[in-house]
Amino acid sequence: MMQREQPALIQAGMGVHISSARLANATARLGAMGVVSGAGLRHIVVEDIRAGDLDALRLARAFPFPRYVEELLAYAPGGSRHNKPVPMDTPDPARAALPRRLSVIGAYVEVMRAKEGHRGMVGVNVMWKCALTVLPTIYGAMLAGADALLCGAGVPMELADIVERLRRGEDLEYESLTGTGTRVQLDVAEDAPASLLQRMPPPTLIPILSNYPFCKRLTDNWQQRHGVRPGAFVLENHQAGGHNAPPRDKSSFGAQDDLDSYFEKVLSLGVPVYVAGAFPHGGSRDDLLMWQARGACGIQVGSRFALCAESGMRADLREQMLAQVRAGTLTVSTDLRLSPTGYPFKVASLPGTLSNPELRAQRTRLCNLGYLLQSHFETGEDGVVRETYLCPAMPAAQYARRGGDPAQTEGRICLCNALLSTAGYGPADELPLITLGVSGVQVDRLWSAREVVEDILTPDYVARRERELRLPA
Ligand SMILES: Cc1cc2nc3c(=O)[nH]c(=O)nc-3n(C[C@H](O)[C@H](O)[C@H](O)COP(=O)(O)O)c2cc1C
User: Fold this and answer.
1) 381 half-sphere exposure, CB direction, 13 A CA radius
2) What percentage of the chain carries pLDDT values higher than 70?
3) Ligand 1: which residue has its CA nearest to atom 6?
């Protein structure tokens, strides 16, 4: 089929809401794979509905199960929950289902808006470390007909199993999602007729990984247990924005962590490979041709799109970033401590944001969004094992009360609030934090998404694909 031509460019999934549906829609219709970030979608979509966003309301109403629609539309102007906070995930079985269902329909709405008006490929980026929203995000994206699931910030070992079981209409439960220790569940069968789920097209499964052993183990595991292979790998070098895989020596990245050290070995697995975060030419056509000459099928570009006109980054912050690049003062560094996930995180040095340690120290800690919560099990004096949720960015006393070691909280930043703020969705008193890849310091003017895609894929190719992918109005 014409629209299934394998794209040479993936517009990267960047959270929170940097890879918005607007950005993914703009790139997918031009022949790239457009990817929406799956992070924080419960909040993003509820806030859009609360604000009366007509597209979000229209697409929410198209969701196939009425209970989910009613629950989301309760936040619309005049609705019964209009002024209520967005519920967090909770281990309390009596209250756990509502936030999960809102996450499902949130992912559905976001993917649907990225798909409107064209036949191009749309994927969703799912972070394994956001364990509690992994299942709802995948489910909502599949109900919306997402073409690809790109899963990183962890090892998405369960991905093939999740997709297979969802398509069979089974309720899901995993005692410990790989690498997180978190118990995750999703009720599916109660609302969804099996016939509808069987019709969901199987998405291409694209793990995002940063070494050979995980690629090998995951390929073998999926092959043996499910008879499927990854549709592609994104191999992400440590210069990429967002979270990076931890360095092998635990303190700084060296040659042993470079993509060069494992790229050829991964190619030998016979799975198509996209390269990310290894762009000496700033994420341009030269980088694409260089990696294709070495055997990659394409590249996944993030930073250039994060700073382009259609990205979900607050416009004032984007302008300041570009001005800093032009002044030659923007730096990108790796912070090994900041992220509650324990993974290294790239931070762009923008004044007035949480890249400034003094501003970080002034923030009053509060855990009110909860996307990075993880299970913690404690046996009470009565011998009963109880589950609580912990995030090392929560207030130290709350963390200790729930059984965590308060030393873990030192130096952690609430990425949920900081990154929602960067996208303009945070409360006024929460400061933003900007993440960017090393290649981002080369972006010195405001590009449109079209200009970036044309620069990488050529205007001729883009013109042809745009014609082929256009849907009649
Ligand atoms: C602002 C920003 C946010 C990112 N957020 C995510 C994310 O949520 N999940 C993810 O898998 N990768 C994330 N990344 C990494 C990108 O998906 C991509 O692999 C990387 O940016 C490619 O390298 P480049 O920045 O040099 O183009 C992020 C990157 C940026 C710049």
Assistant:
1) 0
2) 99
3) 14
Ligand 1 midpoint to CA 439 (Å): 11
Q: What does pTM read for this prediction?
A: 0.97
Q: What is the mean pLDDT of the chain?
A: 96
What span, in angstroms and rounded, lies between the C-alpha atoms of 461 and 86? Answer: 43
Index of the ligand 1 atom closest to the CA of residue 18: 1
Q: Nearest residue CA, atom 17 of ligand 1?
A: 12
Instruction: List the one residue out of 425, 449, 361 whose CA is nearest residue 15.
Output: 425
Determine whether 410 is exposed, middle or buried from the number of CB atoms within 10 Å of its CB (0-12, 13-18, 19+): exposed
Closest approach atom of ligand 1 to CA 313: 1
Give the helix/strand (H/E) hosting 274: strand 273-276
- Residue 149 CB less than 6 A away from ligand 1: no
* Domain edges within the chain: 6-313+443-467
Ligand 1 midpoint to CA 208 (Å): 11
Q: Which ligand 1 atom is nearest residue 153's CA? A: 11
Look up the CATH number of domain 6-313+443-467. 3.20.20.70
pLDDT tens digits along 224-267 = 999 999 999 999 999 999 999 999 998 899 999 999 999 999 99
pLDDT at 1 over 80: no
